[in-house]
Protein 1
Amino acid sequence: MEQEEAVAQPDVESQLTYRIERPVYDEDFIRTKLLHQKEHSTTLRQRLAQKLRCSPGKAKAAALRFLPILTWLPAYPVREYLFSDVVSGLSTGVVQLPQGLAYAMLAAVPPVYGLYSSFYPVMLYTFFGTSRHISIGTFAVISLMIGGVAVREAPDSMFYVASANGTNASAAAAAVLDVAARDARRVQVAVVLTTLVGIIQFVLGILRFGFVAIYLTEPLVRGFTTAAAVHVVVSQLKYLLGVKTQRFSGPLSVIYSVKAVLSDITSTNVSTLILGLICIVFLYAVKDMNERFKKKLPIPIPGEIIVVIVSTGISFGMSLSSGYRVDVVGTIPTGLLPPALPEFSLLPSLITDSFAVAIVGFSMGISLSKIFALKHGYSVDGNQELIALGLCNFVSSFFQTFAITCSMSRSLVQESTGGKTQIAGLLSSLVVLLVVVAIGFVFEPLPQTALASIIMVNLVGMFKQFRDIPALWRTSKIELAIWLVAFVASVLLGLDYGLLVAVTFALLTVIYRTQSPKSAVMGHVPGTALYCDVDEFEEAAEYEGIKIFHSNSSIYFANSDLYVKALMEKTGVDPERLQAARKAQKKRRDKANGAGQNPPHKMCVKFNKEGVTHEVLADVAAEDEQRNGRLEERLEEALVSEPPGAVHSVVLDWTSVCFVDSVGAKAVKQVIREHAAVDVQVVIAGCNRSVLSELDTLQFFTKDVTPAMLFPTVHDAVLSCQHSRRAAQASTSEAASCTDDT
Amino acid sequence: MEQEEAVAQPDVESQLTYRIERPVYDEDFIRTKLLHQKEHSTTLRQRLAQKLRCSPGKAKAAALRFLPILTWLPAYPVREYLFSDVVSGLSTGVVQLPQGLAYAMLAAVPPVYGLYSSFYPVMLYTFFGTSRHISIGTFAVISLMIGGVAVREAPDSMFYVASANGTNASAAAAAVLDVAARDARRVQVAVVLTTLVGIIQFVLGILRFGFVAIYLTEPLVRGFTTAAAVHVVVSQLKYLLGVKTQRFSGPLSVIYSVKAVLSDITSTNVSTLILGLICIVFLYAVKDMNERFKKKLPIPIPGEIIVVIVSTGISFGMSLSSGYRVDVVGTIPTGLLPPALPEFSLLPSLITDSFAVAIVGFSMGISLSKIFALKHGYSVDGNQELIALGLCNFVSSFFQTFAITCSMSRSLVQESTGGKTQIAGLLSSLVVLLVVVAIGFVFEPLPQTALASIIMVNLVGMFKQFRDIPALWRTSKIELAIWLVAFVASVLLGLDYGLLVAVTFALLTVIYRTQSPKSAVMGHVPGTALYCDVDEFEEAAEYEGIKIFHSNSSIYFANSDLYVKALMEKTGVDPERLQAARKAQKKRRDKANGAGQNPPHKMCVKFNKEGVTHEVLADVAAEDEQRNGRLEERLEEALVSEPPGAVHSVVLDWTSVCFVDSVGAKAVKQVIREHAAVDVQVVIAGCNRSVLSELDTLQFFTKDVTPAMLFPTVHDAVLSCQHSRRAAQASTSEAASCTDDT
């Protein structure tokens, strides 16, 4: 420690100085003299045992982690928190209600199931959730994904029944859609999908797989949700216009839907359209006011519930349904359904979809909870969130709900109205319960177009994500590509395949980055031991005969060829060509010498041309030694094949190398050998110790590739190359002088 | 330059010394004072124009590159090379012949098509190929892949015809396999597949996409070819045993095939089996002798042609076909077929398969040519090889051939018998031509079991690849996983899907590597400016209050969360928890103080406990200042929430970071901010300049994250942290003394 203090602690008052004076190290020295590995007394078995050991403390902590309510409820400060929680809970409940009704339409199930989904899981989350501010419940993107699956599994075409009791003769031929049977089937699909989503989320949570959400990088999620918004708007167009078209699912469903609506646009119900547009304008105005007067309003204006109540009133008062043929919500049964087993026979065809829903749902939830946790200074547990969501979905699905996660807009309401804990969420679910068991029937005359307008206005925020495109263009082309691929694939192929394509593409960009690294020849910034790109910086100066090659990536199978190619291009040393030229030359010489039986021996010759010292190592038949005239000629030949400005050392700067695989190691070994064959020394610098141990297991070091070729820093390598070069020159000039003597 | 010379050129005689003395730099200083960017006068447009410019020289070079024969033939040294080329060509031709017949069986087409495939493409390669030593022609793996497709597209079940003229009443019900129609169809499939393979290879070559082969990393190719060997052996079992079973294709075909053969094993033809086993033993012995007496034998013993000739003779002499019901090759039409257009209507269903065949074929070819090129000191052009293979396949397919590449065993014969140029390949094709047009019918009595034994013995080398497993276990578990996945997937799913799965898996391992980097807390090796893992090396010593965190990977969306997590684990600083504890504490205090209307003001207190100096920054309400007793209590509280051994600076060692994306940059920014909020300084060290410019475009630097937080080396960062710490302590002790005064 004393030694280091002297070096690392210059006087505080004076200018801070970086001062190092030490011998030049190579890896050989470091291994044998400088560093000593610590002995680790704990074996793998011991560490494993320690990890798996069970204690009462651990068990209690695990229980508390599983049921977070046990931690926070006993310490709940009633006087302080309760009032805010009640206000926030009621406000959120008032938003849950219309959103539940509206998103049920997206999920292709009758509205009352949206209310169930806004009650059971919301209540359950109170017990298992770790986030205090997010509002669990129906969410547009998830609902739409469920709707897509429900429509695919129970398409309209399955439920046409011949209308047997038609009085008209022609009607007997026409088939009638059995809406009740279709909806019952779609509910079954949605419910069993939700069960599966719950199981997947729960299992992933137990297995501590919360990290899967990281594959959904931000540009991907934003492109994906923008695409979801496009899907939602397209799916709501028909409700807004009052046009009756089929609902499509699967690839290109957006195009089919738009086409169907456009081809039926003449049958637009004007009353429906006007009512919808009024609702949209009103909701947008309220949203804008809430935003603008955020600070002045005690609670946000509940625009959605106003729209629901007023439009229900108008619809009832003016008999819009019967008088103007405006589509209304229709039957809302009062009370809850008894628990029932989901229809598990439907499971097999839903597995892929449920993975998509489970992961999208979780990633929406976790990203929002992290934002709030950060803002309010507590932490959320990703894996517990996954377990909580899984339990909410799984248990609730027995009560006929569809999959939920948290919704951005509702969570903002809950937080901004002063919600402090999960109690607010619980209260909001009770508001929904009240409606379901007591006054649900009141909403029966509610026009569907009002719900469509609620959905659409809620999506305005998502469409704002189009602004990402110019921003990403400026910051990162690769991330822009991810955004666009996620968007285009999700719009065209549907949300499930779109997500798969987007994730695959995002992962391939990582491969691409390693394959197109920035490589450069580095030069020394005088007096600093820092090296940087000679093409880019004026101060970087190359040393004569030494090329320092830096490539900004690891070296492994997918880029080792490219690495070697870039190396040869940048340094200008192509050993294969040099070697070939030498062989050709040797053959020509052998031919000239007839049979050329005499064994060639090596001779070093120094040579001066255009102020640069070239050195040529020529294989010369022994008999030739006397004929000095022909020797000159041969040297001339050798010079033609050698590149000018003779590089004698190549330093591979490996500071950026994170890992090397066997293909990469072989490629580098090959490079070292090939260069050695044409008398160019290749050394490696700045290799970190975990790559070094990888090289050891890959048996990289052999007789001709030794640890003495590795240096801890580029500067060490350069100093050593200069030194060995000077030593070689000294002995060469001796050899040359002895040649001259003959 | 002078300045640097002084530093970098110590006296050659003395011990080599690394000596640096300079101010501590941060990125701010580097940008403004140390480095200046060079101005690049060439714009993108200019560079593009330069690249696309056309000149007569360039055109000539392109022409020569496209037709390499124009380069080497005019310079062909007839006297020297011709004799060796003739010997080698004849020897190779003698191997081409039986292999052509045998591999046609694998490709599920009649034997004569194997001969066509051993003639046309081999001849064409002479003109377009750049490798002088590889022997183009039929190859087991490719033939098997073609066979799989042919069987899938034209299964036996398609060609059962009711035997109308059956005299037996029960035979009228039984269907008879129309072998001629089936084989004709299979030839069509194989031919059009070959056309497509040729087009794909040619287009990839023109587009300079030769690099696609790099995705086939060595362990993958070895696992894959071992699996192919398993497929081949299984497919040949029935010929060896003389059992008549159906040929299967697609996933699990290996299992079905084995099952079919085993269930029919009682019908084994003993004569066939004995003949086959004798051939196998003989061929294996010859192979062994060739290996053992490599140096003494002038040319390798042509075991295969001996087997073909002798077994044909025996079969003819003993009438094995009619007398012992041994299956023989059957009709071999004499002469060549006129060119015909492939059946393009079959194309759509073959696209995936042809990509697989094209890429596998090319990667086999290029890897072998590279080995020979290296050995004999010339170079091959990957893209030209791709073009050559593409043309060979495409043009030949009009003459009814199936896809080819080079075969390892045959190439070794060609090279070891002294082949010097592509002339040897040309001659070998002429040998085949001679047989086709003159004496093809001679081989009609050749037993199929002899061909099966030739195929099997040729595969012995591939089965030796099982030895990779223990070797890879020792060197690299990840590469072992790639080998095993490639093998198992290719055996079970078939070669096409197997290859796809294997490539996907190999690419995912790269992602995995970036997600499971080795992270460590680094310590200084005294006096060296080198830093290494404190857990691993005895010499590495940490500085008090400074944690240096190194992670061996880039920071991007798929690992930024893991990076942050590892950082907090390793350094032991969890700002979120610290912050939460502080907030909770503040609230408790506010509560204790009643309404707590007085604005809190900051106060610094220094504190000594257990020999370690803790510093606590406590927010204290102004009115509290007088009550010293309660102050002590509060400090006690604060100490509980602060971790012991107070870390004041965290250095992120970014020497291994190759790229950063927006998610990574945001995560790091967040880390810096969170730590700053709890008074821990986070700085970044050793970031390379291309990552720096990425950070710039990602708008990483803002008011609170400045370039002054970046240092060129870890040592610079450590020195600077120590300095700023000492400065802070000096001002703190002043503040503390003023606090004590009150």
Protein 2
Amino acid sequence: MMPASLLDQLVDALRVLPGVGPKSAQRIVYQLLQRDREGAAKLARTLADALTQVKHCTRCNTFTEAEICERCLSPQRDPAQLCVVEMPSDLAVMESTQAYRGLYYVLMGRISPLDGVGPRELQLDQLLARATDGLVEEVILATNFTNEGEATAHYLGEMLRARGLRVSRIARGVPVGGELEHTDLGTVAQAFAERRGW
Amino acid sequence: MMPASLLDQLVDALRVLPGVGPKSAQRIVYQLLQRDREGAAKLARTLADALTQVKHCTRCNTFTEAEICERCLSPQRDPAQLCVVEMPSDLAVMESTQAYRGLYYVLMGRISPLDGVGPRELQLDQLLARATDGLVEEVILATNFTNEGEATAHYLGEMLRARGLRVSRIARGVPVGGELEHTDLGTVAQAFAERRGW
Ligand SMILES: [Zn+2]
Ligand SMILES: [Zn+2]
């Protein structure tokens, strides 16, 4: 068998992108090599840089280029409140509501047995260590109201209450089955205000 | 203003991909950095390699890593026939029909005034030089049957006939408005067999 050409390798490598099949990978290759080589070069460079330089904040677990992210270092945030979200995009939604002044922990996922993601894969030890730093008084669970987000919230609630922490869940103002990222800010703000003991 | 973070730069760089907006770029970033760093690294590497090593065949203009591609060098192909297609994917469709044993010229586009692509942008001089090599007896126009593909075929027909070349056009078996890439092979093969003087 002949070694695959660079073009075939590139078509193959593009399949790493969500939703890209062989046909659209082919189209993307032509687009990149024929129409926008400069943009393509920038993409290759930025992606390589991000892979080496972007890591996880040792406190909140979100993506950052620093050891500890700016938000975690800010003296303006209330260290007594810790809001747990699934993804950085959920954190961004919470911030946009301007309803919250505490700190965050980003799970970078959710418990999802079908995808083989359990408590171990989510590295929940790290959340536990973070939540029991002696300053955190309340952990606010802001995972999505999907089945997986709810299961995650239940698991986290039990785990954190067992350590004597006060735990709350944002109110089910977010539609059942809905995701924070696709909910209007007002609803998310209200859901935060109406959080209940968990 | 703060310099954009590497993550923001990567979200921005991903916009070079066709159909990728800010939201899906964000999703792709999480997918790449969180779920498949190995695949992402391979993508960055392969894309950079392709950009430096993939060029155009000096004879048929398709993508290749060599000066002249394998097909153009093959003694098995009939040098008296030259089939002109818009894109490498169209060439692949023609080859799949196994109805053609001549050589190709790939325009890497089509005449499209709305996109600012005219004869000059398509570098048709190169096609003209290729078609007048003394060996080519017939040029078969296999551009798409879209408005732009038809306009391109008309232009090429006049240009090539003016040089005394015999020009044919694959038959309109391909549905009007249709593209080769989305046509079944039988129809494409028939369209080839029924090509007519142009
Ligand atoms: Zn942080
Ligand atoms: Zn060639």
